[in-house]
Amino acid sequence: MKKITIIILSCILTTGAASAQKGVARPAPRVIYYSTPYYYSPFWNPYFYGGFGYNWYGRPGYYNHSTKMQKQIQDIENDYKDRIESVRSDDSLSGKERRQKIRALKHDRDKEIADFKKNYYKKFEN
After folding, report:
1. What residues does each domain of the chain span?
2. 55-112: pLDDT as tens digits
3. 84-123 burial string, b = 16+ CB within 10 Å, else e?
4. What is the pLDDT of residues 18-67, one digit of tens each?
5. Can you name the residues that pair with 60 across neighbouring β-strands?
6. How open is the CA angle 18-24-28, to the nearest 5 degrees?
7. Among 7-11, 12-16, 69-73, 119-123, whose mean pLDDT is lowest?
8. What is the 3-state secondary structure (H, E, C) of the chain?
9. Count of CB atoms within 10 A of residue 50's CB?
10. Cα–Cα dist 110/73, whole Å
11. Phi-psi region of 40 (alpha: psi -120 to 50; beta: other; left: phi over 0)
12. What is the pTM of this model?
């Protein structure tokens, strides 16, 4: 009788301990939303792609074009990005000198872009 009581008590204790533990934590399922690639329009004609200023995916085609000024600003940014990367990879400089040169290049880049914009708009005023 004593053995049966001990077995029953041990079963109750192990069952209680097992039920008190938390379950396996799983991350929430990842939801990915895809936008529809096509634009519904009652005027859409499958034989006339990009009608009324829209491209094949239903987005306005004029947003895809960058202006001459944006291209030139991008050229300036790419030039300074290359200079900054070359300073970052230069091992002959100490960390302090490297940071100072990078700050100076970023300042020069911003100044050159501001001057370019000012001169770009000035040439249309005259």
Report:
1. 32-65, 66-126
2. 555 555 555 567 888 999 999 999 999 999 999 999 999 989 999 999 999 999 999 9
3. beebeeeeeeeeeebeebeeebeeebeeeeeeeeeeeeee
4. 566 666 666 666 665 555 555 555 555 555 554 555 555 555 555 556 78
5. 54
6. 150
7. 12-16
8. CHHHHHHHHHHHHHHHHHHHCCCCCCCCCCCCCCCCCCCCCCCCCCCCCCHHHECCCCCEHHHHCCCHHHHHHHHHHHHHHHHHHHHHCCCCCCHHHHHHHHHHHHHHHHHHHHHHHHHHHHHHHC
9. 13
10. 10
11. beta
12. 0.49
Q: Token pair for residue 25?
A: 């934590």
- Name the residue with tokens 């008590």: 9
Amino acid identity of 5? T
Cβ atoms of residues 116 and 72 within 8 Å: yes
Taken as a whole, the chain contains a residue count of 126
Phi, psi of 43 (to 5 degrees): -95, 0
